[in-house]
Amino acid sequence: MDDGKSPPKLPRPIPFESAGPGFPPPYRTAGAVPVIVTAKMGAADQHHFNNLRAAHFPPERNHLAAHITLFHQLPPSCLDELDRLIRRIAADTPPPMASLREIYSLGGGVAYRIDSPALLAIRDRIADHFTGMLTMQDQGTPRLHITVQNKVAPAEARALLAELAANFQPRPLTIAGLAAHHYLGGPWEHAFARNFRGART
């Protein structure tokens, strides 16, 4: 779903995805759209990666701000429960330490790899809470990243990778909170966002 990967079109009540392991039983009806969960970057980092994305992403595909996807599609029926859970997590959790580790190729694009065991631990809390409701994709541990280019010719992607990697140095990345979004077939609609408020010890 991230950056152009779409879930199936659902004109009538049908399962959230094809039957199989990890399929969450309630049924989804027309008009009910998946919920995406992301990590919020700090303002300076968000601005920086938005600019990179605007400069290098195909304009006709650039529906989104730069983002760090934690869950690709939670059932829309869990939105209120998700909000309550994220409020609790945000209230007692300090901002997780994170760093930009490297720039890597997507084949037809470029992304920045993120190293953050603390953010993955927060994601695990959410995944444990929604055990039995996760798709196969969301049952696995994600490779945390920020995509700044996708769906371009391989030669164009290689050129950008070489350009960005030339002066790249690993550095800290600010993670400010968690957010949820409604997937609208390309664009996303903001649902809610909560900032981490716990004190670091």
Write a compact overview of the structure shown.
The protein has 201 residues and is of the alpha+beta class. The protein has helices at 43-56, 79-92, 117-129, 136-139, 154-165, and strands at 35-41, 68-74, 99-105, 110-115, 145-149, 171-172, 175-183, 188-195. The N and C termini lie far apart (37 Å).
Feature tags:
four-stranded antiparallel beta sheet, single chain, 5 helices, globular, alpha+beta, 201 residues
What would you note in describing this structure?
The protein has a four-stranded antiparallel β-sheet. Strand 3 and strand 4 (110-115) form a beta hairpin. Mean pLDDT is 87; it is low at 4-30. It starts with 34 loop residues before the first strand and ends in a 6-residue tail after the last strand. The protein has five helices and eight strands; from the N terminus they run E-H-E-H-E-E-H-H-E-H-E-E-E. The protein has a domain at 35-100 and 117-146 and 171-195. By secondary structure, the protein is an alpha+beta fold.
Lateral strand order in the biggest sheet: 2-1-7-8
Rg, Cα atoms, Å: 17 Å
Share of helical residues: 25-40%
Give the tally of β-strands: 8
SSE-based structural type: alpha+beta
Q: State the distance separating the first and last CA atoms.
A: 37 Å
* Major sheet characteristics: 4 strands, antiparallel
**Overall morphology:** globular
Mean pLDDT: 87
- Stretches where pLDDT is under 50 for at least 5 consecutive residues are 4-30
Task: Give the percentage of residues in beta strands.
Answer: 25-35%
Order of helices and strands: EHEHEEHHEHEEE
